[in-house]
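Researcher: Let's try something more involved. This one mixes different molecule types, so please make sure each is placed in the same coordinate frame as the others.
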Amino acid sequence: MKVLVPVKRVIDYNVKARVKADGSGVDLANVKMSMNPFCEIAVEEAVRLKEKGVATEVVIVSIGVVQAQETIRTALAMGGDRGLLIQSDTDLEPLAVAKLLKAVVAEESPDIVLMGKQAIDGDNNAVGQMLAALLDWPQATFASKVEVLGGSAKVEREVDGGLQTVEVQLPAVITADLRLNEPRYASLPNIMKAKKKDLVIKAAADYGVDTAPRLKVVKVAEPPKRAGGIKVESAADLVMKLKNEAGVL
Amino acid sequence: MAVLVIADHDGKVVRDTTNKTVTAAAKLSLDIDILIAGQGLEAVAAAAAKIDGVRKVLVAESDALGHGLAEAFEALVVPLAANYDAVLIPSTSQGKNIAPRIAAKLDVAPISDIIEVVDANTFSRPIYAGNAIETVQSSDAKKIITVRPTVFKAAGEGGSAAIEKIDAGAGSAKAKFVSEEIVKSARPELGAAKIVVSGGRAMGSEEEFKNVILPLADKLGAAVGASRAAVDAGYAPNDYQVGQTGKVVAPDLYVAIGISGAIQHLAGMKDSKIIVAINKDADAPIFQVADYGLVADYKSAVPELMEALSQVGK
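Model: All components are placed in one shared frame. Result:
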């Protein structure tokens, strides 16, 4: 069984994004970049499937700038078998990414595409669902538990108010939520080994897929700032203010 | 131009996220239809028909729709979308599950989590965990949009739209519902509560979270929330999570206990009317957004707060 894991290189989780002065976007120059946290969870889950003997091969794919090779190497150090970078110097929209991934699926024929539910830059939460639609595959989004049973997967999903379990026939797209697992740190020997693993680079244009943007970014702005309030001396003081001043009790 | 709003409901009531999405839809069109999909929908359909500004309520019933399966929603909504210029869906976990799937089938770029309708083609939405707001203009003829409900006012009641049953469409045999564990709670729902009490990593354990946050929430008749750090540490379940990767809330009163105020948490609650923060670290970023800050250890402050609330009859 083959598992394909798409990963994205994004601004590091701990770095605060700053809007460019000209309002054209977020300033990524000289900013630490890392693998999207939800993608890390997806890689971890795929590697665990391999360790359990369920998956035989874990293929990592990233779509992005040439430096996304580092992100792929990180995934290979965590236990991925080989990598594919689809190089694109422009930022692609989720629809274009889903179309490129569909082309990769046609080449690789994975049984499961396991990916993060959302990238922390665009916050779209869309590619997994879109890929499933384009492939006419079932989807199991926001997974907190994945169990592969022969020709299907039983997936526990995080939904508003609780959990839902669905069973999807393979091949399927599964997207990872926060509590699916805790990703491992790659060990130094594994980082060294990952450098020798296969990593193929192709150009997005090679796939003959329509990746033209549908959305034009008119502007990017700082969110409105909320003015800070006052400090209160005691809990009693707080309750009086909430009751008499704010009128919310 | 007509707009279709896909209702958020639990089979008994129409959640006010639907009314709020209708308000967003009204900025695009005066011809607003609501789609109610699920099972046993009589009461829900009747309630939706009363929402102000609604032209027609479409009702589609099937088992798969009742379980919210995205494949079934795709089969239902994709043909239906031919009659509309835009489909608006509340940005709940279910909305996020189905909207991109429908969009991809229609070869449309979905627009996620909008907070403003600038014009018929232009929308604003938060990116980078709310650290930036992007305004995008769509060149797609049809729009598939999820709406962040907290920023729109709920449409009122007083309408009397016609209710029409429609074919539910064929579901997919490739996905099936197995089971569901919805937490039954006497507390209000996090997304709709007037007051939210949230706990952070300072709680230190699941036990402490339960002992400190839950009684205070119950005293205030509040919903319970948690920071991502508290959820990550296992002190609280994920459906409590408030923040960019959890729920976005905007209650009248938000009480943050032992929450430092990481940007990803602030993104989920900073539109609350009144924010109260209790934290022993005077420099915690949460105080920068709090209307009322109390610099104190929650261990002493929360019991005092309970006592003070009792004295005002809470």
